Fold:
Amino acid sequence: MRLIAKKPCNFGGRKFYIGEEIPKELVAEPKAQERLGVITVANDENAGVSDEKSGTLYTQEQLNEAVAKVRAELEDAAATLEETAPGAYEGTVQIAIKTGSDGNNEQIMAIPATQEQVQQTFEIMQLNAEKASGAIAGITDENVLTMLAFIDSRNTVKKAAKNRLDNLFSTDGETNEAGNGNDTREDEKKGET
Structure:
């Protein structure tokens, strides 16, 4: 019987990554860990196939090759981005944000954020909801507002950030802020004489 990590885990004070074999003596209840989806119990006669679930296990070399391939593709994509917009992403880190899910697929947005944008986002997230909503009213940075709208768990803050985004980036350069109630549209004025 072999124990293979299905996700990054920690047994006996040692870290194991996906596909790595875990010594049997470190796992107290292998079947329970398998049910939780942490490991796969592979019988030697099955050579890599679980007792209960049929699936393919990969060797460390195969995983390393796959990681190297993905890394190369990412580097190519980054080079292409740099060619199309030189310096546009210099000094930024890509923040992946889950924006929802579509059945079995998660929708993820990547935001190129600077250190200052990340810092401002965390500063606002540490405020209470009322103060955070007040601080959001003065923010003009789309990335900070987007991160707050999707990352902060408080509905008040999410709503304030989304409303601020809507107000900042409405059509025709106009804001969506409410008028004083006496506003008229230009075409309504033409009809009056």
